[in-house]
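F.,

This is the one I mentioned.
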């Protein structure tokens, strides 16, 4: 009887030993687990102007938003006016971000002649005749910019609108024929309702 018990114990020990050897072999033969760093995010380059500590070009990840660009430019100055700026907007390569200061005109100084009230425009020289006539054709009553005839350069000067959004506005106008209401701009990617409200008093839809 003792021989049978001894044989059973030996068999169990052999099974345990074989199992341990197999487990050890599997552990050694399994490929090592390698944790790789995620690929670097592509960069974009944008220009930040206006009421920021250090205006200029900044490099950011492609997923960045306006707030990230402002932070990269040193943050806002004390007189920054965010009423017409949406810091949550996504950025695109070559975007131009303009942060206005409180009390300054919403249109760049070089565009003042286009926005001067009718009847107070400066005299034109012969050399300026054709260029000024083209600018006047894109303005309505009170010097407002006509959304249905303005070119990209004029649309670019609207608050919060840079070269990229100006081109999208032209593309949308070409697709729909003309804008019937200022609210139509909200259908353009990148233009928020808040931006539409800021643009509204500065534009017209033409005759």
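My design for it:
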């Amino acid at each position: 009887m003792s021989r049978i018990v001894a044989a059973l114990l030996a068999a169990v020990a052999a099974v345990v030993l074989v199992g341990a050897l197999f487990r050890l072999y599997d552990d050694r033969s399994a490929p090592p687990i390698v944790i790789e760093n995620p690929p670097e995010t592509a960069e974009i380059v944008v220009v930040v102007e206006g009421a920021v500590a250090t205006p200029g070009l900044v490099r950011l990840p492609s997923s960045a938003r306006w707030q990230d660009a402002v932070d990269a430019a040193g943050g806002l100055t004390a007189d920054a006016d965010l009423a017409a700026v949406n810091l949550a907007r996504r950025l695109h390569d070559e975007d131009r971000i303009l942060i206005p200061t409180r009390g300054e005109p919403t249109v760049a100084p070089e565009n003042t002649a286009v926005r001067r009230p009718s009847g107070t425009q400066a005299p034109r020289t012969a050399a300026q005749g054709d260029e000024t006539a083209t600018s006047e054709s894109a303005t309505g009553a009170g010097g407002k910019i006509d959304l249905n005839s303005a070119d990209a350069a004029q649309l670019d000067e609207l608050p919060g609108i840079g070269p990229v959004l100006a081109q999208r506005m032209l593309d949308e106008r070409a697709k729909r024929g003309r804008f019937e209401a200022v609210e139509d701009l909200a259908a353009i990617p990148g233009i928020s309702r808040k931006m539409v409200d800021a643009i509204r008093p500065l534009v017209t839809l033409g005759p």
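The radius of gyration is 33 Å.

Talk soon.
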